[in-house]
Amino acid sequence: MITRRRFVRNTGVVSAALAIGPQNLLFAKAASGTYRNPIMGGDHPDASPIRVGDDFYLTHSSFDYAPGLLIYHSRDLLNWRPVAAALRQYHGDVWAPYLCEYEGKFYIYFPADNRLRVVHADHVTGPWSEPVDLGIPAIDPAHIAENGRRFLYMAGGRMAELSADGLSVKTAPRVVFEPWPLSNTPRMECICLEAPKLLQHNGYFYLNSAEGGTAGPATSHSVISARSRHADGPWEFSPYNPVVRTMSRNDRWMSVGHGRLVDTSDGKWYMTVHSYENGYRALGRQLLLLPVEWTNDGWFRVPKGITPDSAIPLPVAGSEQQAFLDPSDNFNGPELGLQWGFWREYDASRFTVGNGALTLEARGKSLADTSALTTPVGGHSYTVEIDVELEGGCEAGLLLFYNPDHATGLMFDSEGIGPRVANGYVASHYEKGATRATLRIVNDRQEVDFYFRVAGKNWQRTQESAEISGMQHNVLGGFLDVRPAVYACGSGKATFRNFRYWADANAPV
């Protein structure tokens, strides 16, 4: 049984620039006392969780969307909600960030357009500084410190020493870590030594990295562990490598990797990993949580019998597992909710929100040169719907969006309402001359139908439908996902009201 729960707007801990939009959570009950993966459905890749007292926080890759580097909060490692954004503006393609705390301050090291940067704050929910360019062309940074010396690891087994404040580099990067040999293992995309994650525990420093490639064959990607007595090595490999890996293309969770460990206040240990779901790569890389146990010889491993698809004991007794965030929005608040992200821009002068409406000024001549406003979702099937009003020659619409070249949905302009299939083809138009309509998209396990309604008439389904399983990284590149979106281009403006989401393909008519 699925139930709904609405969050009340909270502006107490969020920076003044960004408030929390009203959001629902959908809860799917697992067996009593257990949870099932994913813990965050939809695209939440490269997650980087930490514990602060009894609270947990994480951020993940924001790629081409702004605001970026969303900060999520949880009390039980299962139920997460966004509470802030570390990047308000668009700073480039943001991959694999690393959230950490050092001497009471918080840092996020991240690459933007393959160049390492850092933001810092006195509180994990901000306000966050503007990005500081570290001057290193690299991806996948990770921070660790020993006896006052601070180090920054990165993909390729490289490491550089940081300044005392962590905001500049003292030494040029050098290779201090080599890949674990992935011989006699299932097929992989590449060696791709990346995603270092570090921690100090019981006299050792542990370095967990990814190998095998992030996508490609289902058996690509993994979690590889090593340890050292010192933060800068030398490193010895775990006898339990690979600690986690997809072993068959028939598994539900594919390309499992990019693991970071986090402990609870009562001494339990867990590891977050991301993964594509078999048959649903278009959802992007979803966030999974696995328990780990420490062995007598000082290594860690996933307990025997536990897989990413197991029913797993709850980290915190009595928790009720969240299935995924519901991005429904009535646009009543004074700020745009954190569920929304603009494609490759953030221009606050372009939109207004409040009193039940989001007004978006038209930009560009078409979807190819405007910035869609998107929200990630989880689930194999769902329905999204929104009311649209056009002014001044605007073209607007409701889409399932991968990138400007690959999107499907309903386009609405002076010619009427036109269904756009995934290859960009608009076959026909309906209701020419209308300026107001309600648009609906039904995604039924990656087969998509389009509906619309104008005042005084019943719902109408278009003759055209679409299929979107190919809108994913292995086909199109970009490490992106398919997500609902609205847009406005041409001239004038569009006003959107009542964005509604249902976690199935059977919305009310």
Protein traits:
509 residues, mainly beta, Tachylectin-2, Chain A, Jelly Rolls, 7-stranded antiparallel sheet, 1 helix
Shape category? globular
Count of discrete structural domains: 2
Rg calculated over all Cα atoms? 23 Å
Percent strand equals: 35-45%
Span of the ends, CA to CA: 22 Å
Contiguous helical run count: 1
CATH class of the largest domain: Mainly Beta
Proportion in helices: under 10%
Low-confidence stretches: 1-28
| Mean pLDDT figure | 92
Biggest pleated-sheet summary: 7 strands, antiparallel
How are the SSEs ordered, and which strands pair?
Layout: E1 2-6, E2 24-28, E3 34-35, E4 50-52, E5 55-58, E6 65-66, E7 68-74, E8 81-87, E9 98-102, E10 105-112, E11 115-121, E12 132-137, E13 142-146, E14 149-154, E15 158-162, E16 174-175, E17 194-201, E18 204-210, E19 224-228, E20 236-237, E21 253-263, E22 269-277, E23 286-294, E24 300-301, E25 312-313, E26 322-326, E27 341-343, E28 351-354, E29 357-361, E30 373-374, E31 381-391, E32 394-403, E33 406-413, E34 416-420, E35 436-444, E36 447-453, E37 460-467, H1 473-476, E38 483-490, E39 493-502
